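Colleagues,

For the teaching module next term, I've prepared a clean inverse folding example: a structure given as tokens, and then the sequence designed for it. I'd like students to try predicting residues themselves before seeing the answer, so please don't circulate the second half yet.
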């Protein structure tokens, strides 16, 4: 569980840097990253892609978090 949260935190921070140019604080990055990991996991499963290792998990979660932030931006406009 702790490993999952750490990967979510890293992914949320990376997504914040890519999408908005900055992070959202510890809790915000964690929430975005954990939600993004679920989205990324679902997306990779649908596309029949697999990841290996910690770096692969971080990339998958970051892609999901970026998609989440992109969708939030569309809704806010």
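(Answer key — instructors only)
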């Amino acid at each position: 569980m702790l490993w999952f949260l750490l990967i979510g935190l890293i992914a949320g921070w990376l997504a914040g840097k890519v999408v908005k140019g900055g992070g959202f604080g510890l809790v915000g990055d964690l929430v975005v990253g954990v939600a993004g990991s679920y989205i990324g996991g679902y997306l990779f499963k649908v596309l029949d892609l697999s990841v290996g290792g910690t770096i692969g998990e971080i990339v998958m979660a970051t892609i999901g978090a970026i998609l989440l932030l992109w969708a939030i931006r569309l809704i806010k406009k």
